[in-house]
Write a structure and sequence with these properties.
- There is one protein chain.
- This protein is an alpha+beta fold.
- The protein folds into three domains: 189 residues, Jelly Rolls, CATH 2.60.120.10; 52 residues; 53 residues, Homeodomain-like (Arc Repressor Mutant, subunit A, Orthogonal Bundle).
- Helices cover 41% and strands 24% of the residues.
- The chain contains eleven helices and twelve strands.
- The strands form two sheets. Strands 2-1-3-4-11-6-9-12 form an eight-stranded antiparallel β-sheet. Strands 5-10-7-8 form a four-stranded antiparallel β-sheet, with no helix packed on it.
- α3 packs antiparallel against α4, α8 runs antiparallel to α9 and α8 crosses α11.
- The radius of gyration is 24 Å and the shape is elongated.
- The protein starts with a strand and ends with a helix.
């Protein structure tokens, strides 16, 4: 597990200066996301993680609301950039991008970014450096012969990015966390408004995330909820539900219920716990809720099931 440091960066443009045709950017750095201002007209907020691991050495995730006439000239970094255009338009060199376009630039690719003068763009963007970029480039190239893809649901992209930027401290194990963020956002461009509908299209990293979710469910069965499991594996809840269903064929809520019913069945056969004790241990607030769920699945009450199987 690689050690790392992280901080939160805020850049902004003075609105009065923008009106005069100036676009000088001011920068501030914060230790906690709660300090990030979000009330300026033109600003950028991002999470910066310095890992210094060969696989991922640095990672940035940002939301950028640019002013008109803004540009970054001749940018060239040893990093992969992914930018989701959520609103407005702009150019990368001479190629125009607008809402619904994901453009990417590969490590050491010199390029100039410029926002549209009439409708400056809002983007969610990722910068990532390290050997993991080779895998990402291969995945991107497998879906396009150019350096851009279409995506849908820009509101979801923004919500997911803001979730990871503004919701507190990243976990100790940074690299799986970062990969989860990247795969979550990238899936909206690779699969549009749907998740893969066949095992061949489900990546290994997706399968691994769902395996981790199942482990979390089994380890915390009496207290887990869909939201708590999504949070533990560092995925936004809505995306987690879509991904879990695509990989397993059942919703996470149904999977949790299935695990609880199987635990109850085992407890009825192998222990002398009363039904009330079983209700308490498996985390049901009401006895009637468990009885109804059990009867629906097994066709009889817990007490009847115990008599038939002991």
């Amino acid at each position: 597990m690689s050690s790392y440091t992280y901080y939160y960066e805020h850049n902004y443009h003075n609105e009065e200066e923008v009106k005069k045709g100036a676009s000088k950017r001011m920068t501030a750095v914060y230790s906690h996301p709660i300090l990030l201002p979000r009330d300026r007209k033109y600003y950028m907020n991002c999470l910066v993680m310095n890992i210094q691991d060969p696989e991922i050495s640095i990672f940035k995730l940002g939301v950028d609301v640019t002013p008109p006439y803004y540009s970054i000239k001749n940018r060239c970094n040893n990093a992969l950039f992914l930018s989701f255009v959520l609103d407005g338009a702009g150019k990368v060199d001479e190629t125009r991008f607008e809402c619904g376009d994901l453009y990417f630039t590969v490590p050491m690719q010199k390029h100039t970014l410029s926002s549209d003068n009439q409708t400056p763009w809002t983007t969610v963007w990722i910068m990532i450096a390290g050997s993991y970029t080779e895998q990402l480039q291969s995945e991107l190239i497998s879906h396009t012969t150019q350096q851009w893809l279409k995506f849908r649901q820009p509101d979801d992209i923004l919500k997911i990015a803001e979730f990871f930027i503004y919701n507190g401290q990243p976990p100790e194990n940074a690299i799986p966390y970062i990969k989860g963020i990247v795969q979550t956002l990238l899936s909206y461009a690779v699969y549009g408004d749907r998740l893969p509908d066949s095992d061949q299209k489900i990546t290994f990293s997706m399968q691994r995330m769902i395996s981790k979710a199942k482990e979390e469910i089994n380890q915390h069965l009496s207290t887990c909820t869909v939201a708590s499991v999504a949070n533990r594996i560092h995925l936004e809840r809505k995306y987690f539900c879509r991904l879990f269903t695509a990989v397993t064929g059942v919703t996470p809520q149904d999977y949790i219920l299935e695990c609880k019913m199987n635990w109850v069945k085992t407890a009825l056969i192998e222990t002398n716990l009363s039904v009330n004790e079983i209700v308490t241990q498996i985390g049901y607030n009401h006895r009637n809720g468990l009885l109804a769920a059990f009867k629906k699945k097994f066709g009889c009450s817990p007490s009847e099931y115990r008599k038939m199987n002991r």
